[in-house]
Structure formats: structure tokens, C-alpha cells
Amino acid sequence: MKNWEIIETNFDPNALRYKETVFTLGNGYLGTRSTFEEGYMGEESLTLIHGIFDDVSIVHTELVNVPNWIHCEIVINGERFRLDRGVLLDYCRKLDLHNGVLTRVVRWRSPAGYTFDIAFERFASLADEHILGVRCKITSVDFTGAVEVRAGLPGYVDNTGFVHWQWLDQGSIDQQTAYLTVCTKKTALTLSMACHVEVEGAGPITYHPQDCTWSPTVMAQGNIAPGQALTATKLVTVFTARDTGVPQTAALDKLQAAVKAGYDAARVANDAAWADVWNTCNITIEGDDEADLAVRYSLFQLLIAAPRHDSRVSIPAKTLSGLGYRGHAFWDTEIFMLPFFIYTQPDVAHNMLLYRYHTLPGARRKAAENGYEGAMFAWESAATGDETTPRWVPGRGGELIRIWCGDIELHITADIAYAVHTYWRATGDDAFMRDYGAELILDTARFWGVRVEWNAARGVYEINDVIGPDENHDHVNNNAYTNHLVRWNLQMALHILSWLRATYPEKAAALCAQLELTPERLAHWRDVIANICIAHDPETHLIEQFDGFFELETVDFNDYEPRVTSMQGLLGVEETQKYQILKQPDVLMMHYLLPDAYDSVTVKANWDYYTPRTDLTYGSSLGPAIQAALAARQGDIGAAYQHFLLAARTDLQNARGNTGEGIHGATAGGIWQAVVFGFGGARLTEEGIICEPRLPSSWTRVAFQLVYQGERITFDLVHR
Questions:
Q1: Is the pLDDT at 1 greater than 80, yes or no?
Q2: At residue 186, does pLDDT exceed 80?
Q3: Which residue of 333, 450, 482, 628 could cross-link 643, Cys pair, CB 3.0 to 4.6 Å?
């Protein structure tokens, strides 16, 4: 089928890190960057598993790089196969989005002058998240002699120089099986991997284990002649202490069963699981191959990062594809990625929201530490929900730079409440709202009720000293996005409490007692809703992004072109604060999330004002997809498509130059929203989902499925 493969036909060492990210694969339990099985100088070999955090200075805690399960070295007549040795005669790397299988085929001439065709295949099973597979086929073109395959579990891995693991145990239970057990140094999480290696060829194969500390390896040797091949198959299993009480036993038991069934059976099960997933969530765009592939690739990256069997974790900002942001979850998850799952795989969305419920204690601790009541969610969250944003980071010159997001970028608390309500409205999952969601929404409202400040002179409630989504400006007062979402949060809390009292009175009474929802507190919420500061000019229809924004200096971005960095990177953090230069347009994001708050004239006026002031190319990667959806809603399809392309090229073309740090998960989710909610015009009403499509001129057809309150609905939109 067309537009289902990401293909690289030329190996460029200068693009190593970027392509490692692009060809990432995973299964919702772990993610593995596309480094080479045999290794390469300067690579960032990385596998991350959901929930495996360990403490480290500066960044508080981070996801830990786990032992390298893809390892497979080939030694031919004493020479190691590597792409930085010998001559690369042909090369093709391919990620098949159908089934999450990564292949690489090369023709290689060794330093001694012999030629070989070498084909690799790997997958992380979607059918059984604990099973991984690697296969390598070595075919001789003109060589006769011995070939050795060395496949093991190198465990001495690091996170940019920091080693999180301590060795516990390793060994071999037979000539073809090895295992390794390690434990994180601070959090004491045990992990065990086991592997089995089988090699097939024209002649006999000999095996022997190599038990070097930190790297248990199976060595296999056979002989080949021109036209003959050796095929090495490596099955790997992995368990952690988060999965089971004795990971080593679990890994070895699972491996034994997997070996008995065979590699091919594992592949068949994986392929079938992927077919089931794509049947529920694929999008087809006809008439625009770039868009069709970019959307499908974005969905693939979301799917391989989504926890299916664990409600204690969620998708980090960089998914499981890189060490950017150290595996922490931001508002990226709830506002940008979650809608895809809500409307295609609500069970996964349910899991992701339970992560926020499980981390409520951390949000309450943060509120209390800052002198507030209720739940104040962390800007960067890891295992416990406590704040993990670094307060200081080293600058380019070694100086320390203060990071304020964890202290005052507060809107994430309302964003999470918004996501909870979106899930409930789309799924009709009353049990979730009763048991989990109501408490989240009510406790975030408690926080806002004490975080607002009454300004008697202005006669309004203010929220001062914050950062909005536009992180180019910090320590601002009355950020429009934040204040609007706070008002919504309080309104929804009152609505949910009323609903609870009518449908589950015992639960309502219990929460009122637990959260001290007195009549006086509820009356205060109503007063805040009526009097919170909203800077909307009814004559110009403009909404000021924050107090004093209109007094800042303007700047013409064209004066700084061409450039390969953000405006903040050019001007500096302090200087950028003086200008109307947006990393992300707060007011437009508010219009997108709250479409009924203002009329179309107001939306258009703010679009026209804030879009030219936004650093679209090198500001926030979160903005363009949402701006595409908002422009499409307004009927400006040309502008919508241009913004869509900015988003679509973010990772596949490394448009911002930072894809090597990991996939832009929020962009991937935003691309889905741009297609479905923007161009597709899908909208949730009291009667259900309706579509008012506004397709780009080149798109002849768009087809997708959405789930609404348990019913799957197919939309097939044709451009006439």
C-alpha cells in the first residue's frame, strides 16, 4: 500500500542522530532509537521503558537507558562488519508502518576486499510487549570461510555520560541463552533481560557463551561460500520490578515460551496486532502523498509510545525516542496527544488520564509546598507527580540559567482538567468521572480558588506572575490563556459537582467532605468566574495576551532572515521579553480550545494580530498544527495548509534541526487534530459528532474513524 513506509536509500553519517530518531520503533512499553545492531561511532544507542526513572542531579529524575537488546555483531574472517569500515556499495533502511518492523539491507565490501549482502530486521512486539526480535541474514558474494555472530545484552549503558545501573547478576542457562539483571542506583528498580540466539546455515553451527561482566553474549560460528547465507535469529525478553516480583524468572520463562513458538510466530502475532490497531485509527488522504505519509507516521509514533497496560505512566514530550526533556510528561500529552486516543482508542486514553489521578498526591504536595490548597500539577512530571523541572540549567558558556516553568507555568493544572472533561464528553464514561475525574477537576478548582488575587482598585480577580504557553515572556500578569482556562476550570467544577449530586449523591457528599467544598468556597468560585480579569476590547475585538503586551516593541522577522534558530536564540532571553515575539500564540490556543467563547469576528481579529508576531519556524513546535486547525475552522484553507506543512515536516525533514533529541510528540498529536478537527471539520455537539469539511484543494478524499460514546463512526470526505 502507498505511503506506508519511511525509506532511506543513502547513509549520511552527518544525519546520524536525526535518523536514529526518525526510525524509532516501539510497542507502548518501550521505545528504541534506530542505531545499528553492530554499532557506529558517535551513535546514541537508546532504549527507554515507561516508568523506569532514576535520580540524577540537575534534572531531578530521568528515564533510564536500558541494556542494548538489538546488539548483533558480525565478524568475517577476523574483520568486524561496520559501516565506518570497508566500502558501502548499497544501502536501504526501511520502517514499515504497517507492522512496526525496521529493516536494513546493505551490500558491503570488507577491508580485505570480500563482498557481502547483509539484511537486518527488528521489531518490538505489539502483541506481547515483553518480546523483542532481531534477525540478520549474511549472504556471501565472493567469500569462502568462517563467519561469527556475536549477539548479547550489553548493559553498561549511560544517559549522556551518567550510568544509572548497578550490576546484579548474569549468566547462560545453555549454549544459546544469556541473561542480565541490573538495578537502578537510586530508585532500586530491577530489570532483567534474556536472549536466545539461533543461527541457520548450509553447514554445522557451533555455539558458546561469553560471560564478560555487563555483557553476556552468545557466540555462534558457521561457514559460508559464495551464494550461501547464515541467518541469525535473536529473541529477547524484558521485565522490570514494575511488572513482576522476580523479573529474572519472568524474563527467562517468557523467553522459553517465545523460543518454543519461534521467531516467525512472534512476527505473525505482532503483525496481527498492528493490523487491528490500524483498522481503528488510520487516516487516508488522497491527492497529497506528503500529507498522507506524514499523518500516518505521526500516528505511528504516538501508537508506539502509548502505554496500553500500565496506568501509572503516560507519554513523555519526546515520547520514548530520545533523552530530550528526560522522559518527563508536560501539557503536551493532555492537550496535543490525548485527543487522538480519546477518539480512536479510548481505553488507552483512560490509562493516560489515570496517570494524572495516580499522581494527584504529588500535585497536592506541590500546592502545599507553595502555600496553596488543592492540586497544583507539575510542569514536568515523572513517576510520582512531584515537580521535576530543573530550576537551573547550564548555558552555552557554562553559566547557570534560571528556569521558571516549574514555579509559575501554571496553566497545566487547568489543561489536565480540560482533558478529563474532553474524555468524559466524548466517551460518556460516567464511572471514570465518578471515581477519578471529578476529584481531579474539583481539586484543581480548589487550587485556582486560592491562587487568584483580588484587585480592589480594578474590581477583578487576577492571576499574577505566571508563564503562559508563550514561554518567550515570563513573570507576566493575567495571561489570557491561563485566565480563560481557569475560568473554564471553575465553571466545569461547579457543573461536575451538580452532576455528581444528581447522579451519585454519596460520592458527591464524600468529595465535598474530603475537599472541604463548603457553600462559601463554591460561592467564591462563582465570584471568580464572574469577575476574573479578561482583557478583551469590544471595539478592536483584540484580547491582550497579558497585561502590558500591547506596549511591547514590535519587530519585523524578515530583518533577521535567513536564520536557523529561534528569535529568542538570536536576541537572548532577556532581550526577547521586550518585544511582541511569540514562541507560541497563547490567545489563538485559547480560541482553539474554547471555540464557543468568542464569535468569529473576534477569532479573526486575533488571528490577524498574533500570527505575524509568532516565530512559526523556530519557536514552539506545538503551535503550527493547532494554528492549522484554527485557520481551517475560519475557512482560510491556504493559511491552514501552510501551517500544516510546517508541522508535518518537523521530524521527517528535521525542519527545526532538533529531531535528534527525540520525536516531537505534541506535533504528532497536533497533526491528527489539524486533519480531523481542522480540515475534516469534525466537531462534538450535543447531538454527537458532525463534520463540516474544508479540505485543501489538492486533497481529493480524506477518510478516518472516530469513536463517540462507544460507537465507531466512519467519515469518508470527498472534495467536490
A1: no
A2: yes
A3: 628
Task: Please state, in angstroms and rounded to a whole number, the distance separating the CA atoms of residues 36 and 26.
Answer: 15
Distance from CA of residue 672 to its chain's centroid?
13
Q: Is the pLDDT of residue 396 over 80?
A: no
Query: Do residues 6 and 297 lie in contact, with contact meaning Cβ atoms separated by under 8 Å?
Result: yes
pLDDT of residue 132: 98
- pLDDT tens figures, 58-116: 768 999 999 999 999 999 999 999 999 999 999 999 999 999 999 999 999 999 999 99
Range 382-402 average pLDDT: 88
Return the bridge partners of 31, or none: 26, 48
For residue 472, the Cα-to-chain-centroid distance in whole angstroms is 23
Summarize pLDDT for 407-454 with one digit per residue, the tens: 999 999 999 999 999 999 999 999 999 999 999 999 999 999 999 999
Q: Is 10 exposed, middle or buried (0-12, 13-18, 19+ CB in 10 A)?
A: exposed
User: Which is it for the CA torsion 555, 560, 563, 566, positive or negative?
Assistant: negative
Helix (H, G, I), strand (E, B) or coil at 74: strand
In terms of DSSP bridges, do strands 688-691 and 392-394 run parallel, antiparallel, or are they unpaired? unpaired
Of 471, 516, 574, 575, the catalytic one is 471
| 199-205 CB contacts, 8 Å cutoff, 24+ apart | 199/149, 199/230, 199/231, 199/232, 199/233, 200/230, 200/231, 200/233, 201/228, 201/229, 201/230, 201/231, 202/228, 202/229, 205/230
Q: Would you state the cell numbers that stand for residue 531, as one nine-digit string? A: 469577575
- Is 471 an active-site residue? yes
Buried b (16+ CB within 10 A) or exposed e, 707-719: bbeeeeeebebeb
CB 477 within 8 A of CB 462: yes
Tell me the three cell numbers of residue 28.
Answer: 507502548
Are 429 and 423 within 8 A, CB to CB?
Answer: yes
* Cα 161 to Cα 211: distance, rounded to the nearest angstrom: 24
Note the helical H segments in 23-66. none
Residue 60: per-residue pLDDT? 84
For the chain, how are helix, strand and coil distributed in percent, rounded to 5?
Answer: 40, 25, 35
Half-sphere exposure of 26 (CA within 13 A, CB side): 31
pLDDT higher for 393 or 463?
463
Task: Give which of 356, 412, 354 is closest to 384, Cα–Cα.
Answer: 356
Q: Amino acid letter at 221?
A: Q
Cα–Cα distance for residue pair 208/72, rounded to 1 Å: 15
Residues in the chain: 720
Nearest in space to 337 (alpha carbons), one of 360, 324, 353: 353
The model's confidence at residue 11, banded by pLDDT at 50, 70 and 90, is very high
Distance between CA atoms of residues 59 and 161, nearest Å: 14
Residue 359 cell numbers, joined: 499522581
> Could you give the percent of the chain with pLDDT greater than 70?
100
The CA distance from 623 to 646, in Å, is: 10
Q: How far apart are CA 451 and CA 380, in angstroms?
A: 20
SS3 181: strand
Distances (CA, A) of 9 to 35, 89, 94, 218, 388: 16, 11, 9, 31, 40
In single-letter form, the type of residue at position 601 comes to V
Read off the C-alpha cell for 404.
Answer: 521558571
* Residue 500: pLDDT over 80: yes
Instruction: Give how far Cα 643 sits from Cα of 230, 251, 302, 458, 588, Å.
Output: 49, 46, 20, 39, 13
For residue 313, pLDDT over 80 is answered with yes
pLDDT score of 686 more than 90:
no
Q: What is the chain's Cα-based Rg?
A: 27
Q: What is the pTM of this model?
A: 0.97
Residue 607: predicted pLDDT: 98
State residue 418's pLDDT score. Answer: 98
